[in-house]
Amino acid sequence: xxxxxxxxxxxxxxxxxxxxxxxxxxxxxxxxxxxxxxxxxxxxxxxxxxxxxxxxxxxxxxxxxxxxxxxxxxxxxxxxxxxxxxxxxxxxxxxxxxxxxxxxxxxxxxxxxxxxxxxxxxxx
Length: 124
Prior knowledge:
Elements: E1 7-9, H1 15-25, E2 29-37, E3 40-46, E4 53-58, E5 69-74, H2 77-86, E6 95-97, E7 100-106, E8 112-118
Parallel strand pairs: 1-4, 5-8
Antiparallel strand pairs: 2-3, 3-4, 6-7, 7-8
């Protein structure tokens, strides 16, 4: 049986500020932004090419902002780093490990993102 991860909660303090960051700086697509009722706002964003989305909002999770850590796989960590920096994101220097090349950044609340370019030798 296949199991697919579809939605990951990311705790934030300011939903509108987070939407701006994820859409205008990190390049995510805004899929939904619904105020269901007072205290419940559901906002779903998806990285380009991903089958898994994140959800931010009000009343979504009891996690504290800044506690989520997510790792994604990208084709070219160096190119992505340049794009992030051009949009004002403080992306880390590239770090090469035996299992890939990484750049990292945090959102305005301190949630951590690791972007991994798979080591081409591992893809053989």
